[in-house]
Amino acid sequence: MDPATEPAPKVVKSDAEWRAQLSPAEYQVLRQAGTERPFTGEYTDTKTQGVYSCRACGAELFRSDAKFESHCGWPSFFTPLAGDAVIERVDTSLGMRRVEVLCATCHSHLGHVFEGEGYPTPTDLRYCINSISLRLEPDAG
């Protein structure tokens, strides 16, 4: 999706408000499209059942039953919770062509999505998401 044609965020805050709400590391990833180091994130190996939400705005993004072992160093999902939960945008930074994944509610950076890597998933997609972009709400039980 082209940034000029994507829907406006439903949650809009000033840069100062985001900085006050988020830790410096969260801000760097969520608001400046940074990347946490591989194999360091809180949810990389988590098996807990529940819903992963955007750490910035709380919008529900992914279910744990769509999470899979990709051994790439970041949590990986084969599909978002709903088709309109995320925005996908072409990213040509770092001299490569990738597809960036943003929270559709607040337009915070989550990670990237990759296709055709051969993982045995129903979609052949890998939503490679920074743990620091997420918050897990475990299922009741």
From TrEMBL:
Enzyme Commission identifier(s): 1.8.4.12
Reactions accelerated catalytically: L-methionyl-[protein] + [thioredoxin]-disulfide + H2O = L-methionyl-(R)-S-oxide-[protein] + [thioredoxin]-dithiol
UniProt keyword Ribosomal protein present: no
Record carries keyword Oxidoreductase: yes
Keywords linked to the UniProt accession: Oxidoreductase
Domain of life: Bacteria
Xref: Pfam families: SelR
Residue ranges annotated for the MsrB domain, each copy included: 15-139
EC top class, as a word: oxidoreductase
Protein name per its UniProtKB record: peptide-methionine (R)-S-oxide reductase
Species name: Pseudonocardia zijingensis
Gene: msrB_2
